[in-house]
Amino acid sequence: xxxxxxxxxxxxxxxxxxxxxxxxxxxxxxxxxxxxxxxxxxxxxxxxxxxxxxxxxxxxxxxxxxxxxxxxxxxxxxxxxxxxxxxxxxxxxxxxxxxxxxxxxxxxxxxxxxxxxxxxxxxxxxxxxxxxxxxxxxxxxxxxxxxxxxxxxxxxxxxxxxxxxxxxxxxxxxxxxxxxxxxxxxxxxxxxxxxxxxxxxxxxxxxxxxxxxxxxxxxxxxxxxxxxxxxxxxxxxxxxxxxxxxxxxxxxxxxxxxxxxxxxxxxxxxxxxxxxxxxxxxxxxxxxxxxxxxxxxxxxxxxxxxxxxxxxxxxxxxxxxxxxxxxxxxxxxxxxxxxxxxxxxxxxxxxxxxxxxxxxxxxxxxxxxxxxxxxxxxxxxxxxxxxxxxxxxxxxxxxxxxxxxxxxxxxxxxxxxxxxxxxxxxxxxxxxxxxxxxxxxxxxxxxxxxx
Amino acid sequence: xxxxxxxxxxxxxxxxxxxxxxxxxxxxxxxxxxxxxxxxxxxxxxxxxxxxxxxxxxxxxxxxxxxxxxxxxxxxxxxxxxxxxxxxxxxxxxxxxxxxxxxxxxxxxxxxxxxxxxxxxxxxxxxxxxxxxxxxxxxxxxxxxxxxxxxxxxxxxxxxxxxxxxxxxxxxxxxxxxxxxxxxxxxxxxxxxxxxxxxxxxxxxxxxxxxxxxxxxxxxxxxxxxxxxxxxxxxxxxxxxxxxxxxxxxxxxxxxxxxxxxxxxxxxxxxx
Lengths: 451, 272
Known about the structure:
Largest sheet of chain A: 6 strands, mixed
Strand content of chain A: 25-35%
Helix content of chain B: 55-70%
Number of helices of chain B: 12
Radius of gyration of chain A: 27 Å
Strand order of the largest sheet of chain A: 5-6-7-3-8-9
Distance between the termini of chain A: 43 Å
Helix content of chain A: 10-25%
Order of helices and strands of chain B: EHHHHHHHHHHHH
Mean pLDDT of chain A: 82
Oligomer: heterodimer
Structural class of chain B: mainly alpha
Largest sheet of chain B: none
Shape of chain A: globular
C-alpha cells in the first residue's frame, strides 16, 4: 500500500492526552479536616510527580483521552486533502502533529518537503508593532526568509489592501484589516506542503472569496500539496478532491471528498444524539411554567441530521414539557447566523393559525420551512410564549446546523461563496431583446456582475 | 528533505534546524527589543538608572560603612560597577528568559521552530541593556580618569562567558517553568540571594583564602572576577584555580540546561 509518490505518509498515528478530574466523592467533603487532608494528599502526589518529572494533573482522577487513534492515510504530491469532522474529532490535533508542534504518542509520519502551517491567522502578530514590522515578524515565524519577504513585500501589501496603514501599529487596525494583513502574509508562503486550519472562517465574505481563489491557484498552478480543515463544506468541496472524515479520533472515510462529506453530514443517524437541548444553555427568560426539551432537524427522508443540502426544506421538530397549563400559547423558531445574529423567526400562530392549548405534559410540533437559505453555518433558537407575547421559555443556539452547497451537478450548486443568508422564492422573467442596434454612447451603461 | 515524526524520536538535525531558523532568532530578538522601548517614556534610561542606583547604594554600604577594600587602587564605585555589569546582565537574562515561553505561548502552540530560540532571543534584550550600562561605565572611567589596560580587549570573551552562564540556568528554569509554574517564584529568590552571594558589592579578595575555591563554585564569581580583571586592568588579579572552577560550573549548568530543555521541548505545546 506504500505509494512511492506519497508526500505525506501517516501510519497508525495515535495521540493521547491525560485529563484530570475532581472525583465524585471529593465534591461533598464536609469538614475543614477532610478538606485539609485532601489538599495534603494532593500536594504529596504532585510533589512526587514533580520529583519524577511527570506531568502534573489537576484533580484527583486521571483519565486517558485518545484524540487520535490508529490513523493512517497518504497524501500524494499536488493533492488537496479536505479534512472534515465535528468539533473534537481530532482534526486540529492531527494538524498539530503534522506541523511538528506536538509529538505523536504512537505511530509514524513521513513528510517529504518543507511544511508551512497556518493554524491561526496572524500568529505572533504584535499589537505594538506596525503593519510593516508585523509582515516581517509573521513571515519569519511562518518560515519565510528575509529575502523572500522583501521580494514579496509589495505583493503582500497589495493583497491585504492596507497601503495607507503600513506604518500604523496593528493595534489600531480594524479587525478586518488585521485579518487581511495576516492572511496576505500566509498566502505568499511557498512551501511544498501547506497545512491550513479553519482560517477562512474570519474576514468579510469578499475577502474570503479572494483567499479561496488564492488557495486554488496555489494548489492547481504551483502543484503544491494542501491539507485543509474547515467547517465550510462549500469551500472544502470547491477546493478539494480527496477527503478525510474523522470521528472521535478515528478515520471513518478516506477517499473522495464527496464521500467524506456525505458521511460527515449523515452522521446524525449513526449517533445516539436525539436533539436534546443541552442543559448548560442559558435560559434567562424562563418562568418555569413550560420548558423546551428537544429540537431536531430532519432531512427529506425523515432522518435526523445536522446539515441539509441547499434546496432541501428545513424540517424542524420541537418538543416541550408543560408543568403549569397555559391557556393560549405559541412556539417560536428562529434562525441565527454563525455569529448569533438572528436572521429570521417564525411563530406557530403564523397566518392566523390558532393558539396552542398547553395542558400539563409533553407536547410536540413540526415546522417546515421551504428552501430559503444559502449555504452556511446557522443555529436554531426556540421559544415558548403566551399569546399576549409574554415569554415562558427561550433558548438560543439550541441546535447548530449547516446548509451545505449542493453537488456540482445540482442546479442549486453555487461555484462561489455566496453573500447574504436568504434565498427567497424567486422567478426571473424571460429576457427580451429591445433593439437590434446599440443606442448612442452615454445613454446605457453596461452592468457587470463579477460572478 | 525528509522528516520522520515518531514518539520520542530525537531529531538528528536539531542543531542544523537551529541554524536554519537563525533569522527567526534575529527577528524575535528585534521584536523584543523594539517592543520593550516602544511604549516607555524614557526607554533606555531605565537600563541606566537601575544599575547606577544599585552601584551608589553598594558603594555607600560596602565601601563607606563596612569599609571593605577595593581591588588595588581602583576607585570603589568603579569596582562595584564592573561587577554590576555582568550581574545585571545575568539576572535580567534569567528573569526574562524563564518567562519567555509562557509569554510566547500563542507561538509555541501554533508554529513549529526549535523552541531554544525563544529564551535565547530574550537574552539579546538583556544584552542591549548591558551595552547601555557599558556606556555608563565608560563615562565613569572618564570621570575617574581611569585608563584601562590591554586586558580590556579580552572583555568580549568574558561577555560570551556571561552569556553562557546565563543561558544554562535560564534554559533549565524555562523548561521547568512551563511544567510547574512554581518556578516563576524561584527566580526573584535566586536573583536576590545571588546578588549578595556573588562578589557584586565587594571584591572577591575579601573572601578568606581557604574558602576561595569553594566560593568559586558559583559560576558568577568567575565571570565577575573576569570582568574586573579586564576593566580595572592590572589592579585586579584573577584567582585562576577559582576561575577554572567557575568555568566548569558554567559548562555544567549549560549542559544540564540544554539537556532538560531538549527533553521537555516537544511537550511544551501540550503543557502550555
